[in-house]
Amino acid sequence: MLPTRQTRTIHVRDLPIGGAAPIAVQSMAATQTRNVAATLRQVQLLEEAGADLIRVAVDSAADVEALAEIRGASSAPFSVDLQENYRLAETVARHVNKIRYNPGHLHHHEKSKPIEDKVRWLVDVARAESCAMRIGVNAGSIAPDYKERFPGDAVSAIVASAADHCTLLDEAGFTDYVVSIKDSDPRLVVEANTRFAERRPDVPLHLGVTEAGMPPEGVIKTRIAFEQLVSRGIGDTVRVSLTVPFDDKGTEIDVGRSILADIEAGRFRSVPPNFFDGLNIIACPSCSRVENERFIELAEEVKRATKYAKEHDLTIAIMGCRVNGPGETDDADIGMWCGPKTVNLKRGEETIGTYSYDAVMGELHKELDRQIASR
Question: Do residues 219 and 288 both lie within one domain?
Answer without folding.
Answer: no
